[in-house]
Design a protein that fits this description.
Layout: H1 2-29, H2 34-51, H3 76-86, H4 92-104, H5 118-153, H6 158-172, H7 175-186, H8 212-248, H9 251-258, H10 263-281, H11 283-291, H12 296-301, H13 307-317, H14 320-348
Length: about 350
């Protein structure tokens, strides 16, 4: 197992390098980079000053073409200073290898527009994403796995039919629409005003008693968690049910029953170990989705300032240090979680031996 783990860790290096190289190359052809963002802000500000009778100090009628859209009329020396500030005065390959060398030392630099280090920004936004991700994983697996097993055992019964109806509705309704519905119903919309609209804690959280703080936290998290749980709950439940049904139909289950084992012994002593393999295989994707990708719209709807919102705003603003740093961190976490998933495979089913398989 040690050799397998070492090979997987070594394979992470070219994988991360490839992801970053492709993303970096795509960004080079994307219009509207950070220099263009500053130029757009300056030209917009200058237009406003002219309309109000003022004038811009940076704008000059130099009448010179520029490689940047909207830069005509700007002082070329100022453009050169912008390029140097953002590092665009160097060739792309040099910038890429410098970035990768810094990232290997976990030096992610500073944001272009927020005047703060990328690590500090991620640390500031992490509590929201951790809150959403951890609770969604806990609740979805705690509810979906027992429910999926029950549906597999009661396949075709009335219980299976009406729970399937709820699951299909939950899977079909987009989470952001369900979130808006919850706001309308329970967060001061057109009906009840039971839950807050923004943040994960109240403004007076520090002054609350120790026993009031977890209650305040859960009060703020109730609606976002219910919104995200609906789709996660549906997917995992159906996956668990189908996996258990496939295993129950196999010959070894019939043999176990013929030996006189009870249904509980057959289900949890034999079927569970094999059926859970597919659930474990989907854990890395569920982990990454719950922490990052799945919470973007929910963060906007419930005014939560987390990693999903930070990443989206950084892409729109072309804040490349944040974009590439979060991509590097998320990709690395995904590869590590995937390795952990393989190790859990061997724990659930000792018959699996990755040492004997080619990577």
């Amino acid at each position: 197992m040690g050799a397998y783990i070492l090979r997987r860790i070594l394979l992470m290096i070219p994988t991360i390098f490839g992801i970053m190289a492709i993303s970096f190359a795509i960004v080079q052809f994307a219009p509207g980079g950070p220099v263009e963002q500053v130029i757009s802000d300056l030209t917009s500000q200058s237009s406003g000053d002219r309309l109000s009778g003022g004038g811009g100090d940076v704008l000059q009628d130099v009448g010179q073409d520029s490689a940047y859209r909207g830069a005509r009329g700007l002082d070329p020396e100022f453009i050169a200073k912008l390029e140097k500030q953002f590092g665009f005065d160097k060739p792309p390959l040099e910038r890429f290898f410098t970035m990768m060398w810094d990232y290997l030392r976990f030096d992610f630099g500073e944001s272009f527009f927020r005047n703060t280090s990328v690590v500090d920004l991620i640390a500031q936004k992490m509590p929201v994403s951790i809150s959403l991700g951890v609770w969604i994983l806990v609740f979805s697996y705690a509810i979906s796995i027992p429910l999926g097993i029950r549906k597999a055992v009661k396949d075709g019964s009335a219980f299976d039919v009406w729970t399937s109806g709820i699951i299909i509705i939950g899977y079909a309704v987009p989470s952001f629409l369900f979130g808006i519905l919850l706001i309308v119903l329970f967060a001061g919309g057109s009906f009840l005003d039971w839950f807050p609209l923004r943040g994960i804690v109240s403004d007076n959280f520090d002054s609350l008693a120790w026993w009031q703080k977890p209650l305040d936290y859960m009060w703020h998290m109730t609606l976002p968690l219910i919104t995200l749980l609906l789709s996660a709950f549906a997917t995992t439940t159906l996956l668990t049910k189908n996996s258990f049904i496939d295993e129950i139909k196999k010959q070894y289950v019939t043999t176990a029953r013929a030996k006189g084992l009870t249904e509980r012994q057959v289900l949890y002593g034999h079927v569970f170990r094999n059926a859970m393999l597919i659930i474990i295989a989907g854990f890395p994707g569920a982990f990454i989705s719950a922490f990052f990708t799945g919470s973007l719209l929910i963060e906007y709807i419930f005014s939560l300032d987390g990693l999903g919102r930070l990443g989206y705003d950084s892409i729109v603003r072309r804040d490349y240090p944040i974009v590439f740093a979060t991509l590097f961190i998320f990709s690395l976490m995904g590869l590590v979680v995937s390795l952990i998933s393989d190790l859990i495979y061997t724990w659930v089913d000792p018959r699996i031996d990755f040492e004997r398989r080619d990577v």
